[in-house]
Amino acid sequence: MGRQPCCDKLGVKKGPWTAEEDKKLINFILTNGQCCWRAVPKLAGLRRCGKSCRLRWTNYLRPDLKRGLLSETEEQLVIDLHARLGNRWSKIAARLPGRTDNEIKNHWNTHIKKKLIKMGIDPVTHQPLNKEAKPEESSSHAPHSADKHISENDGTGANSSEDNSSTPTEDSDLLDTICNDESLLNTLWMDEPPLVDASWTSIPAGEPNCNISSLPSWDNCSWLLDCQDFGVKDFGFDYLNDIELNTLEMGDKTVA
DNA sequence: AAGAACACCAACCGCCACCTT
DNA sequence: GAAGGTGGCGGTTGGTGTTCT
């Protein structure tokens, strides 16, 4: 097909992003929205590949990102979703607000994989390592045993002291809801867009301050430049849900 | 204190799906 | 329907920080 490279190889900078480059990219996206990544480097005055810009934005600069290790609940959710979806990190990430596919992938490869192996569970099949996987056995059964192992054996794991914003009860309720939500699972299998379900957001029903208007203004983006190195929770954005973010993005596009 | 080994994660690469012409 | 362009995804790599010897 004679595919073109995504960018001119000559003169394109690689490697870690500088604060100056981050600033340029943020300024550009906040002004023009996310569109035509190929054109972004040129328009934003960056000597970067468009792909690189998109990756930098989605994995690091987006204001709705969480920081820090995955909580135990998030980890269990990843395990459960992985058992059903396999290495479809973007699908898994779509169910964890504020987390990126890259982040989840990295966490899986560095933490969860080892943890499962240590527990005698095959991280690929989610079946016990010492037993042959039974073909007739539904894979959806495995994650629950895996989760059980985790809660029994690793309840005091390294992540337990990290930024778990919800209580254990809330966490387990959320996980139960997700694991038992057939429509959700069906949606995941069917590759449909993420469900917009109240159970996926921590916004309490009737919460008065949960609309997009309570966010800092996007017209004046200087706040973002100052806060990009902090976690979302530092700014009280952890209540953002998919709807609001989509709205935000669409709004940007319409402005652009 | 210094070097080796290990762990972590940001970023790159190549492929694929989707959209437009 | 074919070709070309673009964005997105998943696998992998390389740099850096941390721990171990």
UniProtKB/TrEMBL annotation:
<feature type="domain" description="HTH myb-type">
    <location>
        <begin position="9"/>
        <end position="61"/>
    </location>
</feature>
<keyword id="KW-0539">Nucleus</keyword>
<protein>
    <recommendedName>
        <fullName>Protein ODORANT1</fullName>
    </recommendedName>
</protein>
<keyword id="KW-0677">Repeat</keyword>
<feature type="domain" description="Myb-like">
    <location>
        <begin position="9"/>
        <end position="61"/>
    </location>
</feature>
<dbReference type="Pfam" id="PF00249">
    <property type="entry name" value="Myb_DNA-binding"/>
</dbReference>
<feature type="region of interest" description="Disordered">
    <location>
        <begin position="126"/>
        <end position="174"/>
    </location>
</feature>
<feature type="compositionally biased region" description="Basic and acidic residues">
    <location>
        <begin position="129"/>
        <end position="152"/>
    </location>
</feature>
<keyword id="KW-0238">DNA-binding</keyword>
<dbReference type="InterPro" id="IPR001005">
    <property type="entry name" value="SANT/Myb"/>
</dbReference>
<feature type="domain" description="HTH myb-type">
    <location>
        <begin position="62"/>
        <end position="116"/>
    </location>
</feature>
<dbReference type="InterPro" id="IPR017930">
    <property type="entry name" value="Myb_dom"/>
</dbReference>
<dbReference type="InterPro" id="IPR009057">
    <property type="entry name" value="Homeodomain-like_sf"/>
</dbReference>
<feature type="domain" description="Myb-like">
    <location>
        <begin position="62"/>
        <end position="112"/>
    </location>
</feature>
<feature type="compositionally biased region" description="Polar residues">
    <location>
        <begin position="153"/>
        <end position="169"/>
    </location>
</feature>
<dbReference type="InterPro" id="IPR015495">
    <property type="entry name" value="Myb_TF_plants"/>
</dbReference>
